[in-house]
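Hi L.,

You mentioned the student needs an example of a multi-chain input paired with its predicted structure. This one should do, with 1312 residues in total across all chains.
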Amino acid sequence: MLQPFAYIRPTSTNEALEHLAAEGACAHAGGTDLLGCLRDGVFSAHKVVSLAGCEDLRGITARDDGSVRIGALTKVADVARDPVLSERYPVLVQAAAAVASPQLRNQGTLGGNLCQRPRCWYYRGHFPCLRKGGDTCYALAGENQYHCVLGGSRCYIAHPSDTAPALMSLGASVRIQGLHGARTVALDEFYVPPATDVQRETVLAQGEIVTEIVIPAPPRGLRSTYRKVRGRGAWDFALVGIAAALVVDGGTVRDGRIVLSGAAPVPWRSTESEAAVRGTQLTTADCRRAAEAAVRDAQPLKRNGYKIPLLRGVIEEALRGLA
Amino acid sequence: MTDHADYHLEGLEIPETPVPQSGTEPWTTTTVVGTARPRVDAYELVSGTAVYPSDVVLPRMLYGAILRCPHPHATVRSIDTSAASSLPGVHAVLTGAGPHHASVRDYASVLESTLPATCRYEGQAVAAVAADDPYVAADALRAITVEYDVHPFVADERRALDDDAALVHPDGNRVGEPSRSSRGDLARGFAEADVVLEESYRTECEIHVPMEYHGCVARWDGDALTLWESTQGVFSVQSAVASTLQLPLSKVRVIGHYVGGGFGSKLQMDSSTLLAALLARQTARPVKLFLTREETLLVVGNRPPANMHIRAGAKRDGTLTALEFTATGTGGAFRAGGTSLLEWLARDLYECPNVATETTDIYINAGPARPFRAPGHPQGAWALEQMMDALAAAIEMDPVEFRLKNIPSRSQARPGMPPYSITGLARCLQEGAEAFDWVASRQATRQQDPGATWKRGVGMAAGLWIAGAGGPPSTAIVKVFSDGSVNLNLGASDIGTGTKTVMAMVLAEELGIDPDAVQIEHADTGTTAYATGSGGSKTVPTESPAVRAAAVDVKTQLLALAAEDLGVDASTLAVREGRVTSTDDATVSRAFAEIRGLRRRGTVTGIGYRGPNPADKAVCPFAAQFCEVEVNTGTGEVRIVRFLGTNDSGRVMNRLTYQNQVFGGITMGIGLAMTEARILDVDQTGKMVNLNLHDYKVPTALDVPADMTCHPIDLPDAEANTTGAKGIGEPATVPTAPAIANAVYDAVGVRLTSTTLDPAHVIAALAATGKGG
Amino acid sequence: MGNDTSDPDRHERPPGSGVSRRGFLSSVGTGALSAAVASRAAAEGVPPDAVVQATELSKVALHINGQRHEVLVEARWSLAYVLRERLGLGGTKVSCERGECGACTVLIDGVPRYACMTLAVEAAERSITTIEGLLEGEELGTTQQAFAEHDAFQCGYCTPGQIMAVEGLVRVNAHPSSDEIRLGTSGNLCRCGAYAHILAAARRAAELRRGGGGEA
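Structure written out for the whole complex:
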């Protein structure tokens, strides 16, 4: 049962930002992650600021320059079934369709999916962990089967989002707005690894929100896919996954991005894998090399060693599928 | 040795019922029983109008909540409830130590034991509150300050017998002596074998997760207590509450018209019911106290983890010569059957002269186990049925064929080895294999492309369920009103298996009426006849003969009354289509409502009792299941393509609800095999880490195959009881998990001996054996 | 309360479908809203334009099953709680209260959502349909009827949520495939494991909705 909080539903984004500037104010978009965190006492909210009245934060717009703008309050379900996105960016609609459950996709927003808090069970549970201001990462010596094998440092969460790796593979950026101004940040720069700051996952400052996501025009020859492996058919975060967006010209990979989910504390761009695949014809051997490159620096914890063969398998399969 | 059939009633005093009347010879033909019939309460269930205990809202009702110990092992040093008590909207705060309000002072010892100072598992109750709404109740729990002395704990039974393990109880972590059984000469059996195999197996702890939380609404009217309780047995709750609170049984009314699932975890009273009753008493207001999902995951039972080892021998001709089964398990911090019935299948499923078993129950600092759908059996099957598969491979025999060579005709595990009334196992195996197209399917998996990413495999397994015979006591009352309409009164709960529907069908069969015309009063200790809890797959075989006997009783009376009207001998009359009609002359007939004797009396009442089971026979349901899977050799993902269940559960009473049970059993078995495991932080805090339904993974619609087949073997068991039915709910989940594991082996050649078969474990196994893609 | 005929969620139903039964209980008690809140101060004002303080009651209008309900709620109260415990609409069940089981599924503006993860204040002025709202008087709606015919439940506790998920699906997809149905109901746990029958019922629900009455 939730603790008491004040509530306001402003009628404009500016007004919402005014309310969000206060210490202890939390933005309520779809609410699916916020209410879960409040219920578990992960953090508390003095004031919940509903963004339901911020009409300008909704909608999917194809722009003249070929890019697509997605309002941060766009439901994940709407992303998953959008015809324009479906045609241009299969990786994104596949990732959106793989999120949580139908009802949560109907409620959760794309902005919220990018900004969701970690799903580490120590973080979510009643454990005073490092990320909550304690002095221990319980995952390090504990039940770490679902934790990271890449990029861990002090804290070993695995980033939970499906859409973030997909958007990152497409080179997307987010527009961030606060009371004192707005800025655009590439998704590559949006996430904060624990080595930098163990108590935050994004560059958002108190009072700032993501207002929109912009995906650049798809380059000619773009082939993209999202492949997620999970323990249960629905309602499950990725054990691992891969978002791949490759530019293929005449059967040869010219460029592209490979981003892993479930592997690291942030959506993990594998430049090693990208380099391995560039210039190849995506033969089985090419894909296997790219898969191998992705896990070369992986360091498993006690119970998540399986993620290494699993990453190999899923990367190889996904890349083969783009050939 | 005790009769395991009554495992879930252990310690309960069961009143005996008289033997039933005659007139219930086996049905030769049926017109209603055996058909596929939607439920008599389908309207209530689909319209949202069925009132479950958790739906009850009473005027002036308060909401209860329980503060629970966050540590697996701790002592309450001090507890400060002053801030909670002074919160607006908080009406009562109970602790074990008190001081207690005058209205509950008589129950100080109950409070002390229900809210104990020493907590031996995470989630043990420490305090309870009642408030205006559940949000304020939660605020009150947060406002209570408890200081704990935190003690060392042990949360893994595999380490609990180590010398340096923390002690759950001062006298050690063993729950008594290991339980042993043996027959024949094991050494000779192994000496005779051509092949001897040995393997260790493990199943993880599985939690019941019924959709409706455990709990009740409690209301006092003077010295009488009414409880609307989510339970599988209103009389067991009544008995436990009455004895604990020292109330006459007549003053404790427990109503459980609907229950949102139980699977064994709601056969007994939970201590939260006592707290609800005492909160209601102290506040003199009704109190609704339902646990949260987190609480249900911690404290109201589980299927214990099982660590099993089998050594088995067989001859090349398929004769099983020796079986040695050892296992450890844990029922948590208290004696709760941590290894209950694990060994039963090894002792009973196949003909084998030389068998020895040993099971060791161990304490750990975790929530107590409760009976869970076929206690011990799915775990034992996981081990035995994978071993049977491996033995079949070792002697190069088809696994169906191998099992058919070892069909038992008698229950070897029971004293005196009584014969089974019917062993439908062979027919399950034969007809199931045929319906599944087993031989051809198996051949096909051997001819697939070795380079394919997704590999196909087929697997099968068999099982039986120790109970499922039912038995006395049961009393049913049938009342025919002057207009010919019919009321059935029985104490049993319908836990979702369709009990009410089946009973209405039995009544309809005997009285020639429409099952939908039967009004049923049930599961209310204030108004219905005594019944044992609905569990053990015994409800239909227990209650349906009593209902049939009551129908025959009322029919006999109606025939006699009609005979007076018609001036004929009652023996020339029969009942059909709601009328009494002469067997000689169809024009000599009276509708029930036209029978003068009935109209004069207003009602005619028949009473039926459940007779005893055959003294010299064992009555058990049997099952076999077949499945086909696809395994991704690169990712370890397992897709179940199709499943087929065959069952000998005696007479098929309702084809539709029977099938539903079979599919439900398979689905639950898929959970055991593939997705479900309680995960404790064994190395650090001992706390459960996957304490929600996202991290504790109950299968979804996407985890079960769209292609499911139920292939009943309809074998009315005339020796078992007067309807010929045996239980179906539990046997339906026994073979599922090993059938999947065997199919995975068939696909990729790797034997997964520990649950769960999720991609993490499967890919790890594939990688370890070099069989990954 | 009054009839809200402009409710966009009121769908035409095909003729000749449905089962009716008289005299069912809605709940044992009354769930009387006015009595329940009388002891606590009611604040004036409606959420959108003023801050509602913690534990303060504010008045919101919920449009449920075509009726407008003005209710006093705390900001932290879930829609599921208000439906079940304040308005006596016990058909909507709760089984996790954290969006992980689906028992509380209702339609909000025609779309299946979890009432436990929806604050009542957030549902203000939206159109809410609960399991009770699928009834036409006492007659079962087509999806309800399909579930009854196919025995698409056991204990019945997840059933209202399953029905609402299927209802939401067949309203936008007249011919759902097996995979679409399994996906569409994948946000609703059924611990009894009636998924196979739910699949059959969902196919039947689509058929009934298309006007294909008669026997299954």
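You could point out the following to them. Helices of chain C lie at 33-37, 79-86, 142-149, 159-172, 178-184, 195-209. The two ends of chain C are 39 Å apart (CA to CA).

Best wishes,
N.
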